[in-house]
């Protein structure tokens, strides 16, 4: 398979291959039984006459049993996949080998039994037809196709050479040609099959990447506002289900306009990137969501975090932001930020918007009180919960 699909797609392509082979095997088994029926039923008075009737019945029993065994193998494969999500291709292959070997040996038996001499031509045609059917369904797997064609054709070819039929050399040569020809054609079909799979996987990969890009802020690599809003609603609903708290920290850089005006937008951009690095370093739980929700405004959503914990985290972050220093041509730029924290124990009556609104009010209060502050959204409209201290920003 390595020749056909990129290495990263091999596990998923293997799974898909076995599932497709199982799906294609059902009509294959029906065709197998139908070919046997078409071989003997139109000439029933010949096949079921003495002295052939016993052999005909035994061969019919063997062909039927092998078809049922192959069906059981397909069924077992499906059950294993459904219950354990494992794709055991060997079970499918076993069914293929049993049914093709049964046919190969039965047709060899027919050819070698003197009383069936008149049926040799139709037996060989039936075998060739089955090989063509096998190509149609098993071509994607070289292993499966070889395990089908070889036991199907080799026993009858050997048998026809052994009985010394006048056309035995032609029959054997045609069987050999059929084997090589079908195998050769299968290579083209295999390439087409895996090319189609690879294109599908590449498309899915690209569309996942595109969907992921669509959730990101291009400058900082943090999540964007749209994603954040959706995530906040999801996490809020989860908090209702789990009866757990959820906290939100809104962060707004202080006097950021001055940074742009004094040092230019490129330096401003560098400050925003540095801020995002500080956020990523500080909040690294998989369930936290970090986003840039405005020009110089950031948000951190903290599921399961209580108010006191959120306040402590916010204050540590504030101190960390104070330490940020960005070197530019004329001077080093330092930053401060104001932070608003809100925590809710969500209920059916509350909403994610309320959580955001309260954090925004707290942030506004932190700004009002002189910036470089952390303010907590109060239970009432009183804002006595302000912590931190004012320092000059850049
Ligand atoms: N460099 C840069 N600046 C941006 C970006 N987005 C927004 N800004 C700037 O951020 C500044 C925000 O200014 P204001 O809203 O007045 O806020 P502020 O100057 O930080 O003042 P306070 O928030 O009240 O402390 C504006 O000058 C915007 O141009 C960006 O992507 N890159």
From TrEMBL:
<dbReference type="InterPro" id="IPR029787">
    <property type="entry name" value="Nucleotide_cyclase"/>
</dbReference>
<feature type="transmembrane region" description="Helical">
    <location>
        <begin position="89"/>
        <end position="113"/>
    </location>
</feature>
<dbReference type="InterPro" id="IPR043128">
    <property type="entry name" value="Rev_trsase/Diguanyl_cyclase"/>
</dbReference>
<protein>
    <recommendedName>
        <fullName>diguanylate cyclase</fullName>
        <ecNumber>2.7.7.65</ecNumber>
    </recommendedName>
</protein>
<feature type="transmembrane region" description="Helical">
    <location>
        <begin position="145"/>
        <end position="163"/>
    </location>
</feature>
<dbReference type="GO" id="GO:1902201">
    <property type="term" value="P:negative regulation of bacterial-type flagellum-dependent cell motility"/>
</dbReference>
<dbReference type="GO" id="GO:0043709">
    <property type="term" value="P:cell adhesion involved in single-species biofilm formation"/>
</dbReference>
<dbReference type="InterPro" id="IPR000160">
    <property type="entry name" value="GGDEF_dom"/>
</dbReference>
<feature type="domain" description="GGDEF">
    <location>
        <begin position="244"/>
        <end position="379"/>
    </location>
</feature>
<keyword id="KW-0472">Membrane</keyword>
<feature type="transmembrane region" description="Helical">
    <location>
        <begin position="169"/>
        <end position="188"/>
    </location>
</feature>
<dbReference type="InterPro" id="IPR050469">
    <property type="entry name" value="Diguanylate_Cyclase"/>
</dbReference>
<dbReference type="GO" id="GO:0005886">
    <property type="term" value="C:plasma membrane"/>
</dbReference>
<keyword id="KW-1133">Transmembrane helix</keyword>
<dbReference type="Pfam" id="PF00990">
    <property type="entry name" value="GGDEF"/>
</dbReference>
<feature type="transmembrane region" description="Helical">
    <location>
        <begin position="53"/>
        <end position="77"/>
    </location>
</feature>
<keyword id="KW-0812">Transmembrane</keyword>
<feature type="transmembrane region" description="Helical">
    <location>
        <begin position="119"/>
        <end position="138"/>
    </location>
</feature>
<dbReference type="GO" id="GO:0052621">
    <property type="term" value="F:diguanylate cyclase activity"/>
</dbReference>
<feature type="transmembrane region" description="Helical">
    <location>
        <begin position="21"/>
        <end position="41"/>
    </location>
</feature>
């Amino acid at each position: 398979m390595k020749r056909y699909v990129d290495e990263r797609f091999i596990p998923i392509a293997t799974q898909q291959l076995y599932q497709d082979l199982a799906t294609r095997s059902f009509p294959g088994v029906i065709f197998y039984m139908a070919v046997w029926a078409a071989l003997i039923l139109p000439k029933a008075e010949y096949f079921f006459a003495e002295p052939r009737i016993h052999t005909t019945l035994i061969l019919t029993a063997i062909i039927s049993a092998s078809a049922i065994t192959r069906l059981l193998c397909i069924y077992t494969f499906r059950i294993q996949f459904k219950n354990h999500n494992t794709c055991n291709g060997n079970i499918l292959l076993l069914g293929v080998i049993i049914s093709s070997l049964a046919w190969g040996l039965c047709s060899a038996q027919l050819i070698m039994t003197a009383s069936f001499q008149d049926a040799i031509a139709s037996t060989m045609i039936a075998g060739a037809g089955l090989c063509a059917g096998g190509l149609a369904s098993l071509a994607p797997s070289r292993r499966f196709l070889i395990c089908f064609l070889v036991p199907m054709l080799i026993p009858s070819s050997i048998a026809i050479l052994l009985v010394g039929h006048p056309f035995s050399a032609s029959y054997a040569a045609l069987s050999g040609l059929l084997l090589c020809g079908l195998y050769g054609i299968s290579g083209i079909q295999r390439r087409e099959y895996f090319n189609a799979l690879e294109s599908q996987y590449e498309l899915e990969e690209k569309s996942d990447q595109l969907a992921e890009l669509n959730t990101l802020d291009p400058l900082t690599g943090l999540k964007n506002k749209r994603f954040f809003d959706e995530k906040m609603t999801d996490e809020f609903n989860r908090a209702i289900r789990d009866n757990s708290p959820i906290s939100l920290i809104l962060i707004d850089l202080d006097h950021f306009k001055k940074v742009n005006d004094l040092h230019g937008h490129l330096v401003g951009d560098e400050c925003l990137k540095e801020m995002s690095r500080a956020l990523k370093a500080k909040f690294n739980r998989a369930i936290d969501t970090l986003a840039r929700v405005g020009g110089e405004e950031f948000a951190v959503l903290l599921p399961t975090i209580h108010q006191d914990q959120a306040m402590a985290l916010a204050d540590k972050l504030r101190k960390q932001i104070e330490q940020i220093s960005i070197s530019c041509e004329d001077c080093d730029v330092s930053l401060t930020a104001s932070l608003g924290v809100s925590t809710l124990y969500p209920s059916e009556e509350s909403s994610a918007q309320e959580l955001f609104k309260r954090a925004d009010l707290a942030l506004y209060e932190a700004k009002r009180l002189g910036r470089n502050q952390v303010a907590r959204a109060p239970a009432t409209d009183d804002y006595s919960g302000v912590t931190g201290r004012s320092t000059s920003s850049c």
